[in-house]
Each structure stands twice: as C-alpha cells, then as structure tokens.
TrEMBL record:
Keyword line: Amino-acid biosynthesis, Histidine biosynthesis, Hydrolase, Methionine biosynthesis, Multifunctional enzyme, NADP, One-carbon metabolism, Oxidoreductase, Purine biosynthesis
Task of the protein: Catalyzes the oxidation of 5,10-methylenetetrahydrofolate to 5,10-methenyltetrahydrofolate and then the hydrolysis of 5,10-methenyltetrahydrofolate to 10-formyltetrahydrofolate.
Catalytic activity: (6R)-5,10-methenyltetrahydrofolate + H2O = (6R)-10-formyltetrahydrofolate + H(+); (6R)-5,10-methylene-5,6,7,8-tetrahydrofolate + NADP(+) = (6R)-5,10-methenyltetrahydrofolate + NADPH
Name this protein carries in UniProt: Bifunctional protein FolD
Source species: Herbiconiux ginsengi
Enzyme Commission number(s) of this protein: 1.5.1.5, 3.5.4.9
Residues reported in the UniProt entry to bind NADP(+): G166, R167, S168, I232
Transmembrane segments: none
Stored CDD domains: NAD_bind_m-THF_DH_Cyclohyd
C-alpha cells in the first residue's frame, strides 16, 4: 500500500482564496478592512520567517497589517503596554503574539492580556475555556488546520478512534477537544505513555504533535490509518516531521508531508480567524 498524500499547500491555497473573497465582501459591506497585528519579540530566525509569512498573506488577502517588533531585552511591561495599545485600537481585529517568547517572559500571563474577541491564535485561557465548554469562540490555528485537512480528505471523524500524540497547549490539548466535538473517540498519548506503539496502532486516525523528530515509524501505525504529522524540525538534510515519512507512507492510507502538510494550514486558519474576529465585532450575534 502507498498512502495518498494530503496536500496542505493546495488546501491552504483554496481556503485563502475563499477568505480573500469573504474579506472583499466584508470590506464592501462595512467600509473597513479586517486588521491583523503581529508581535515578534526577539530575533528567533524561524519566528521571523513565520511572522513575515503571516503578514504577507494577510496583506495579499486584503487585510490591514499592524506589525510590532520588540527587542529580546523587552520587559514584561513593554509587551503588556503594547498588547494594551493594540487591544484598544478599533482598527485591529486580531492580535498575535508569536511564540516562543524569550525565556525571561511569562508566556501564559502575556497571552492572557489579549482580549478573547481579538485572540485570533485561540491561545488565551479564556478561549481555551470556551473550547472546553464547546461555546463559540476563536480556536487555535494548527489544530483547526489539522481538522480541516481531515475534512478535505473526507475522513470520517464521528465514531473513529483518533490518537493524538502530544499534549501541548498549542496543539495536542485543543486538538483533542476539537476532535471530541466531532464525536471521535479520542486518546491523548504523551511522553509518559507506556507502550506507545500499542496505543498508536489502535488509531484509525493518528495525529502526531510530539515535537520529537522521527518519533513515529511503521511499527506505530495500523495498516490503512490516516496520519497527520504536525511536527516541523530543521535537520541537516532539510525540514522533517515527527513521522518517518518514508516508512509510514507504505502502511498508511493517507499522510501529510513535511513541509507542505499542516504548516501552511496554520496560516490559512489564522487568516480565517482574523476575518471571523472582524465579523464578530461589526455584526455581533443577538
Ligand atoms: N503565536 C503562535 N506561535 C506559534 C504558532 C502559532 O500557531 N501561533 N505555531 C508555530 C509556528 N508557526 C506559526 O506561527 C508556523 C509553523 C510552520 C508553518 C509552515 O507553513 N511551515 C511550512 C514550512 C516553512 C518553513 O519553515 O520553511 C510547512 O510545513 O510546509 C507556518 C506557521 C510556533 N509558534
């Protein structure tokens, strides 16, 4: 068996086209553009690339771009003041604090200064609470992107056994919640899980967000399972995921590549969330 490749670049391109169309309609209707504020603290090279890509995409889709770059020596108060300023700016629909922050800063405390209505990353404690309760709110981009890829491949989630490897606030935890809301039978595995291959081999759908290069090989995957690889690592030979693609492609029925899988969807979902945030403010539900 050779797995079908789930093309995240193509799905992201289609999603972005739809978002651009909806942004144009929103702008015609309201006379304003959705605005995305990106904040980069420090000089992490990968973070700078991701922020640049988010800004470029938002402008291409017709949004207003508000970018701020703070030095790695910025204090908690510096970041808090900036978040406060952007929170009270009506032209800013969404605020994104690029992670990771320099180690000296308290990530959760700062992220939680973003008002839930502008939390286009879906990472505040308030947004996590809304997700856990199944209430309307903005959801984290990478988990949304993974679910969107499964939908685009017409994978049935209701009743399926899904194993999520990883329990991070950014991906694993919110993804498990999103999948539960789609009536999947969800197991979360992590670094303390005993006999990981036995757990993952039970999965019809295996989503790997462990942050460990090449963690998952053929021995972890049931024949015909769908495999979504959320990992991105820079290695000497280029980008690689958490999944040993060359092995697993012979066992799975469908698989995402790295690069070109979940990564592009993260940015596409951020664009959609920014439009949603703008709509929520200009056309609040009764
Ligand atoms: N505030 C946030 N910080 C971080 C998030 C996030 O969702 N919000 N996620 C990651 C990084 N990230 C977005 O910020 C991100 C990672 C990867 C990609 C992507 O398109 N990857 C490409 C490869 C690009 C390359 O590195 O050459 C791919 O997989 O094809 C987009 C966004 C951590 N921080």
């Amino acid at each position: 068996m050779t797995a079908a490749i789930i093309d995240g670049k193509a799905v992201a391109a289609r999603t972005n086209e739809e978002t651009a169309q909806a942004v144009a309609e929103f702008t015609d209707r309201t006379g304003t553009r959705p605005g995305l504020a990106t904040i980069l603290v420090g000089d992490d090279a990968a973070s700078a690339v991701y922020v640049e890509s988010k800004r470029r995409t938002s402008v291409r889709l017709g949004m207003a771009d508000f970018h701020r770059h703070l030095p790695s020596t910025a204090s908690r108060d510096d970041v808090a003041r900036l978040l406060d300023e952007l929170a009270s700016d009506d032209a800013v629909s969404g605020i994104l604090l690029q992670l990771p922050l320099p180690e000296s800063l308290d990530t959760t405390g700062l992220v939680d200064l973003i008002p839930p209505s502008k939390d286009v990353d879906g990472l505040t404690t308030a947004s996590a609470g809304l997700l856990a309760r199944g209430l309307p709110g903005l959801r984290p981009c990478t988990p949304l992107g993974a679910v969107e890829l499964l939908d685009s491949s017409e994978v049935t989630l209701s009743g399926s056994r899904v194993v999520v490897v990883g329990r991070s606030e950014l991906v694993g935890r919110p993804l498990a919640q999103l999948l539960l809301q789609r009536d999947a039978t969800v197991t979360t595995a992590h670094s303390r899980t005993q006999d990981l291959p036995a757990v993952t081999r039970d999965a019809d759908v295996l989503v790997v967000a462990a942050g460990v290069p090449g963690l998952i090989g053929a021995e972890h995957v049931k024949k015909g399972a769908v495999v979504i690889d959320v990992g991105i690592h820079r290695t000497e030979t280029g980008l690689a995921g958490d999944v040993r693609f060359d092995e697993v492609v012979g066992v799975a029925s469908a698989i995402t590549p790295v690069p070109g899988g979940v990564g592009p969807m993260t940015i596409a979902m951020l664009m959609r969330n920014t439009l949603t945030a703008a709509i929520m403010v200009s056309e609040p539900q009764q």
